[in-house]
Amino acid sequence: EAQVTQNPRYLITVTGKKLTVTCSQNMNHEYMSWYRQDPGLGLRQIYYSMNVEVTDKGDVPEGYKVSRKEKRNFPLILESPSPNQTSLYFCASSFSGSSYNEQFFGPGTRLTVL
Amino acid sequence: KNEVEQSPQNLTAQEGEFITINCSYSVGISALHWLQQHPGGGIVSLFMLSSGKKKHGRLIATINIQEKHSSLHITASHPRDSAVYICAAYSGGGADGLTFGKGTHLIIQP
Q1: What pLDDT does residue B33 have?
Q2: What residues in chain B have per-residue pLDDT under 70?
């Protein structure tokens, strides 16, 4: 089944404890992206990748890192999480190297930073 | 930076009604996406439009490039259509990325 998977789905952590949210897609998509969704603010892009080893900042990249060593994986790293990173996170992918085409979303990761 | 506005923010209707959700944007775009977010949180892509009109089942999406406006219509609405509907604009060029509207929360009552 074609899908985007994220792990973990739920995470409660404490300030400063490094964490990684994994994202994997099995559709051989070039483009992958991370978004956060907050009440009243909607979805905002954190980082995106147009292909392997090509990543760039989105609208709200502060406090996050990403890497794209393989086409299928695009992990989101929070080196020192803070409470303002409490949010619902979505990974998405699409066929071509841009947001032009249909986006396929992962199920979301609900992160709480205490 | 593109500004994307959706209206209404909230909409409650009776089963069977014709629903219209509007999306306007401030800067010319290459594509406009309509997304559906289920009550459980998952997001599904409904349409990608660059011009004209698309139809899928009871859903119809239209876009007017000159007026910078798109609409999502639901015919014969059903309680299972209850969800948040989000439009997202892709401007292309330069920094990539989608600019999202804040969503329209739709409730269809039986």
Answers
A1: 95
A2: 93-96
